[in-house]
Amino acid sequence: MSALATTGFIAAALAALWILLAGALSIVAARRMRDASTILSAARSLQNLVELSPARPLVVRPDSTIEADARLLREIGIEKPPRTLSDLAGSDNGLLAEDVDMLAKSVGEAALSSSRFQCQVRVGGSGRVLDVRGAPAPAPEPPGTMLLWLFDTSSAEAERSKLAQRLEQAEAALDALTRLIEAAPFPMWYRGPDLSLGLVNSAFVEAVEGRDAADVIARSSELIGDVNEAQSSAMAALESGKPTSRKQAAIVRGERRMLQIVNVPLPTGAVAGFALDVQDLEEARGELARQVQSQRDLVDRMTAGAAQFDSDRNLDFFNGPFAAMAGLDGDWLSERPEFDRVLERMREHNRVPETRDFPTWKAERREWFTSPLEVIEEDWMLPGGDHWRVVGQPLPDGGLRLFLEDRTEQARLASARDTLLRVRSATFDNLFEAVGVFASDGRLYLWNRRFSQVWGLDEEWLAEHPRVDEMVPALARKLVNPTAAAQIREMVRKTISDREPANGRITLTDGRHFEFAAVPLPDGNALFTLVDVTDSTRIEAALRERATALEQADRVKTDFVANMSYELRTPLTSIGGFAEMLAEGYAGTLTPAASDYVAAILESVARLSKLIDDVLDLTHGDSAAIVLERERVDIAGLCKMAVEKFEPRTKAKGQKLLPDIAESSGTVVGDARRLRESIEHLLENAAAYTERGGKISAKAWGDEEQAYVQISDNGPGIAKKDLPRVFNRFDRINHDPSRGEAALGLGLPLARQFVEAHGGKVDLVSSKSKGTTVTLTIPRAPR
């Protein structure tokens, strides 16, 4: 029993020991499992951290083999697991070969020195940049192993490039702004937070007469006042937080000028400023104020009343005549009463027209403020018999300008004028001559009984004031030559438009002869008169019948013109003399209108005297009969004087007068007056017969023996059949009376007569529609 018991005890002890050992082993295993789980969890956490990290690891071992992160290989496009660094290179995928070589060199150097390094590599075909940071790998890696971390810095590099570009642009803008401030024509400055000058431009330096900006800043030279005053102004801008502006006088470059000083606070606590020269603006404002005051003073001196109401219909301005005419007190008007109140006060003083419904009348005048018309005019007949002309002018701002003009005296004068007109009409009706007055529009304005009797016109029809062209058919029926009626019409029109008198003779179908004249009147109308010259015409016919048949018609005409010219000299001399005496004031001071009439008389006398001289010269017939002066004549100066004389006339017609006077024209020995008149006659013809906008050229040149003057135009020219008659005395190729003196047929004959008297000649070349050229050939000395 004891042996069995011992055996059982031993077995039991062994079982207990085994159980204890199994329990201990279980506890140890559980602890190791827990530790393994913790380590595994940490490893997974580290792996997640690596996965989430922006950097990818790469291990380079001492034998140059590498262990790369799979994600890194995907990012750089390597599909086959690399063995060494050189396997990371590729043209389209992987890193650039030169960058891999550089990286291998950096890794080798860092492994030998056990140091850290940093570089950048580029991914081929993508433009991406990787930042590489390397350091020795920690244990348990063998010595010489390098751990590389690769960061994708492509976006950061792009951002850095943008920042660099912006910085460059900002520097360029700052440089441009600095140049602009420096080139500014007005002073500019910058004050630091301590309000002392830190920057000034050239205009500031020039204004304070400094050497340069550094000198001005060092001396703290201020543009206006002292340093304390300038800093106080800048401090005021800082405290207000807004730009401040003030005007102050200053001495700039030795001259007193008014400047507008502007200080601008900056967020940094500094102050920038500039100064504008407003001296001219201040002077202009002062001048404007003086002009306004001058205009107000001028309005006060006007005889017409003037008042202005603002957009609220309150009186804004009035002059003295307005207060007097309206019968209102000036102090009351100065209180700026309303428009309606002004009209009511004027009504109390009988200064508005009488009306049954004054409120309606007043409301109608109130509508003038908003009237679309530029000017409203009314005639006011006042209870006292005064006659006013009232003009209302609406203003763009909604106001109204009012003018009152007293026309009482004009109305009385108009009544007196009507009386005079009736007296004049009665006088006209009893004249022996037939008289008709045509208005400026060509209508028959006034006539006498004799006028209607001569032409057989009905009074009722004449009362309708027919136009002169409407009267042509009625006049033609009474004339032997019906076409003369159209000549009368054109003569009346020419007198009205050109203000030149005209005359002529007509024969009626009943055998009577009349001389007519059209005379311009001062009021713009034309006076047409008919004088019965039947008896004198019969006497002239009898005298012509007694004339000898052998006497040539041209001689008769020439002698008659010559005699008439001599006979006209005596009364013309008397007219001119008495007119000059009137102009000199021997008969007392003349009115302006009378002075104009006298001037017109003198002008007509001079014109007629010249015409008579031309006629007398022409009636000598033979060039040898002309007595010439013998003096040295400058042809160039003569031509220039003639051109200058005719330039105003050609400009008035829109013609171009083109002189071309050569120095070779030189001088000749002859009569300066007659040579000048010859050139002027040619210019007169050219200007008269050249249409508006045409060209006239005046040339002069010469050689050793002769001087030449040539006048050309691009006018209508002369027909070939008329060329033989151009130098005939009093023979007119063109009978158009609008050509003036050129139409008398004197110019070319006189020019040829004067030039031939000097031993020269006149050549004329012309064709229809191609203009005319006349050349004067004048010998240097008379033969």
TrEMBL record:
Catalysis performed (reactions): ATP + protein L-histidine = ADP + protein N-phospho-L-histidine
Family matches, as InterPro entries: HATPase_C_sf (IPR036890), HATPase_dom (IPR003594), His_kinase_dom (IPR005467), HisK_dim/P_dom (IPR003661), HisK_dim/P_sf (IPR036097), PAS-like_dom_sf (IPR035965), Sensor_HK_Regulatory (IPR050736), Sig_transdc_His_kin-like_C (IPR004358)
Keywords noted in UniProt: Coiled coil, Kinase, Phosphoprotein, Transferase, Two-component regulatory system
Gene3D superfamilies reported in the protein's UniProt record: 1.10.287.130, Histidine kinase-like ATPase, C-terminal domain, PAS domain
Histidine kinase domain ranges (all copies): 563-782
EC numbers, comma separated: 2.7.13.3
Coiled coil: 153-180
Principal EC category: transferase
Name of the protein in question: histidine kinase
